[in-house]
Write a structure and sequence with these properties.
By secondary structure, this protein is α+β, with helices and mostly antiparallel strands. 24% of the residues lie in helices and 33% in strands. Strands 1-2-3-4-5-6-9 form a seven-stranded antiparallel β-sheet, covered by helices on one side. A hairpin with a 2-residue loop joins strand 2 and strand 3.
Amino acid sequence: MKNKNSGFTLAEVLVAIVIGVISIAAAFSSYGYFNKSYKSVSQKAAINNSAREALSIITKDLRNTGYLHVDFTEEPNPSWRLIELIQKKLGWSDKLVLYQGTLPNTWIRTIYTPKEYSSCKFTTEWCNKYGNGKYLAKTVIENPTSPGNKRKVIYEGMEFIPNLVDFQVVLKDKEGRELYPVCNDCGSVEINQGAHTPSNNSPNKGTLNMPKVHTAEVYLTIQSAREVFAKNKTIKITTNEGGTYGNNTQTFNDKYHRETFFVSVHTRNLAKHVAITEQTGTSIGQTSSYNK
């Protein structure tokens, strides 16, 4: 009696190997595709989260700007320190300085300014092209002009927004016209705009424009921390298109994703809302409380 052994033929083994190789290749291909998609989506989500959280804080600070405690006495000329905009502080970006007095003897200066990283934290390719990159720093100081222990640095130069591309601020009056200059400690751009032109010796033009600020428009452009696209992509970014002094256009050609976010804030403690009153026997007019 003969034993009959069963098994795979050579042709069957070869077919199984081919099917296995194809399955493994498909699995790796799918993994690579979904991995790239996940990285792209996560980078874009990180930009959105960072921008939305940052703009909500900046909005809150702008709405508090110019608020003074009813018994505030720390600053001799509080109307000279309300809000400041220094244009083109670092390349394309602006610097924003905000003031508020929360207590009779305490007031706060908040500064948003673009800065460069001291050491490269991005990919080698990015650093070779653009250097160390930028971030938006935030500084908060209590009683900034007071001597001794009254002056207190809450935090200085804190990394508020990473991977910054551009930070633009446009200040407008109640008629929607751009205000410039608006500053006390002014930069070269504001000086060229006549910031230090005296008005009855003091205050100067830049200071006189502070209480006229009715609306602050903030443009924030952020870049992904890592490459997102498979090939170089040309991206053109324009902020405040058609603006008098804030119109900036930048063009990039690389694999990084960039996105611009915008918010418009009413500075309720600076330029007050226009109140309409009706007087008996006369026409409707505006009260005199606006921009005094």
